[in-house]
Amino acid sequence: MARLGLAVCAASFHLFLLLASTSSLRRAPTEADTANHARRTAYHFQPAKNWQNDPNGPMYHNGMYHLFYQYNPHSALWDIGNLSWGHSVSGDLLNWAALDTALDPTSPFDANGCWSGSATILPGALPAILYTGIDASKEQVQNVAFAKNPSDPLLREWEKPAYNPVIALPADVPGDKFRDPSTAWLGRDGLWRIAVSAEVDGVASTLVYRSKDFVRWERNAAPLHASRAAGMVECPDLFPVAERGEDGLDTSANGAGGVRHVLKLSVMDTLQDYYMVGTYDDAADAFSPAEPERGDDCRSWRRLDYGHVYASKSFFDVRKNRRVLWAWANESDSQADDVARGWSGVQTFPRKMWLAKDGKQLLQWPIEEIETLRRKRAGLWRGTRLGAGAVQEIVGVASSQADVEVVFKIPSLEEAERVDDPNRLLDPQKLCGEKGAAVRGGVGPFGLLVMASGDLHEHTAVFFRVFRHHDKYKLLMCTDLTKSSTRAGVYKPAYGGFVDMDIDDHKTISLRTLIDHSVVESFGGGGRACITARVYPEHVATSSSHLYVFNNGSDAVKVAKLEAWDLATATVNVVVGDHHGLVAPALELEPTRTTQ
């Protein structure tokens, strides 16, 4: 207990010093700040300025959450200068304090950039980072770094040993296609393992490396996954899930009954993340899919999110006994807009993940901490009937910064739109584009209009629509951005995916949408389908946004429940002038435990 108390007091004292040293550097908002405020998020993770992309090495250690991320300290663009590892700490996954960069391209083995990787806690509570370095010859190699002072709760200093790289570029892999080491897991033979993305003789491969000491690594003869069809894949993530219940598992959990594994891959060709549930044999380092009929081309696997996310990364949170997912949601306007804002890219709000009862799909839900941001509540509608063409405003909440939960009840499926050609059901995004919110349907479209102008000239529609093919019903979920902004030069697609549930049996469907200025995250069917979107409406510069519930189907639907909350603004890497050590308020600390 004395040791725990000292660790907590030390961390609090360090944060106090950081706050004190920067308080005099806080500045009043400029005109540029005011113009960008409507775009900047209130509770999503983003640095105070400049470019960020992949989340790297999230972990919980010594009572603190850490998030490392791909960061360009030189620019709001990716390709100006070389990438570093940004580093922020938190006590609650909501409020974040930015520290100095953890890794910078200062050595021959990473002279042209410190690219993506992961963090692992080694025996003795020693945090270690494995990352891809772009070396002086511009080849991709794998390097290791260790926390210089593991007892420092903030882990502010990292050492890169001179013996790097620990994994040199293999002879059968091109110099630009070998990257993104995963979180390490410990096999029953006592050896550490990691997954690394590579292209081997033209085949996209997820390689496995083993090590006794985390320094000398040997490649397994067979890859964990390989496919020529998908092209280069990135950011592999292999992690265990419990067959029953919502509890998470440590990354090294294996061998006991009741454990499945998930293999997640990010595909460059589509800039989307895909996953497969299956079983993992650590003796052969082999992964067997639960749905082999989906094939080796991971583009036919299940989608982690049907919207605008990439390069996701999960970690086991031992504090709350859950697996938590992060993912990068980049901007979708222009590079000139990035430069004008002075920043680019956000992380999705952290999501809890667990295995559905069918043993084939993951369920995702915003972590419970978001509820501490809830302030004013509106709604509590029960049994409200939405007839054909109904549009009703949800008043009483600030609709640009809100958390909305609604449950729709479908009285009848008789008017569901018939689809005779099954090929039309193969591309849900195309179907959402053809059957947008403005297109009258049978059962649906019904859902929410968010970030809407008062005249509805601008709005983002998040909705459901039911189709019927022969005697089976398919529930389509869409986020339609075609009316999200009147600005030119903004990417405004219609995103979509099918919700894997029996709507004929349930006759109800839930929708939860997090609205945070330029980010709209939606969770359909209790987290069975997720869609993240970036939106840039013009009206926010001069007027408030509105929030509506609507039905544009010929059949009425009922709102069984609707609740909406204002969300407070979290303190996320707050701006303190141009000082590099950007700090959040004092952070809540927890007992000393470690996890990755």
From TrEMBL:
It is an enzyme of class 3 (hydrolase). It is found in: Secreted, Cell wall. The keyword Electron transport does not apply. One of its GO terms (molecular function) is beta-fructofuranosidase activity. Its main location: secreted. Residues 1-24 form the signal peptide. Its EC number is 3.2.1.26. SUPFAM superfamilies: Arabinanase/levansucrase/invertase, Concanavalin A-like lectins/glucanases. CDD domains: GH32_Fruct1-like. Pfam families: Glyco_hydro_32C, Glyco_hydro_32N. Keywords: Cell wall, Glycoprotein, Glycosidase, Hydrolase, Secreted, Signal. Residues 44-366 form the Glycosyl hydrolase family 32 N-terminal domain. Transmembrane segments: none annotated. It catalyses: Hydrolysis of terminal non-reducing beta-D-fructofuranoside residues in beta-D-fructofuranosides. It comes from the Eukaryota. GO terms for biological process: carbohydrate metabolic process. Gene3D superfamilies: Exo-inulinase, domain 1, Glycosyl hydrolase domain, family 43. Residues 369-566 form the Glycosyl hydrolase family 32 C-terminal domain. Belongs to the glycosyl hydrolase 32 family. This is beta-fructofuranosidase. The lineage of its organism: Eukaryota, Viridiplantae, Streptophyta, Embryophyta, Tracheophyta.
